[in-house]
């Protein structure tokens, strides 16, 4: 598992500006705990949802088949 340090730099409206290494990115504020404040270090976990991916691919293939029927 990769461990990284993410720091809340600031809030801009509904967005949190997150520092990661030498860059920043925006994250919807609603995804953070309500007690999160500027300067807090947060952990971000990303996992693959293989079932949802397979269902999505199946749906897309079905739509493509309907669209490109002979």
Report on the architecture of this protein.
- This protein is α+β, with helices and mostly antiparallel strands.
- The protein has one domain (6-67).
- 26% of the residues lie in helices and 30% in strands.
- It contains one helix and four strands; from the N terminus they run ββββα.
- The chain has one helix at 50-67, and strands at 6-12, 15-20, 23-28, 41-42.
- The protein has a four-stranded antiparallel sheet, with no helix packed on it.
- The longest helix is centred in the last third of the chain and has 18 residues, at 50-67.
- The mean pLDDT is 94.
Shape: elongated
Number of strands: 4
Q: Output the structural class.
A: alpha+beta
Number of domains as seen in the coordinates: 1
- Which stretches are low in confidence, meaning pLDDT under 50 for 5 or more residues running? none
- The helix fraction, in percent, is 25-40%
Mean pLDDT value:
94
Largest sheet, if any?
4 strands, antiparallel
The count of helical stretches stands at: 1
Spatial separation of the terminal alpha carbons: 47 Å
Radius of gyration using CA atoms only: 18 Å
Instruction: Assess the beta-strand content as a share of residues.
Output: 25-35%
Secondary-structure element order, N to C: EEEEH
Strand line-up in the sheet with most strands: 3-2-1-4
Keyphrases for this structure?
single chain; about 70 residues; alpha+beta; four-stranded antiparallel sheet; 1 helix; elongated
List strands and helices in order, with pairings.
Layout: E1 6-12, E2 15-20, E3 23-28, E4 41-42, H1 50-67
Antiparallel strand pairs: 1-2, 1-4, 2-3
């Amino acid at each position: 598992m990769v461990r990284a340090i993410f720091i809340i730099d600031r809030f801009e409206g509904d967005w949190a500006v997150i520092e990661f290494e030498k860059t920043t990115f925006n994250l919807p504020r609603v995804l953070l705990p309500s007690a999160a404040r500027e300067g807090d270090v947060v952990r971000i976990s990303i996992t693959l949802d293989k079932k949802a991916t397979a269902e999505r691919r199946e749906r897309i293939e079905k739509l493509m088949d309907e669209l490109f029927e002979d």
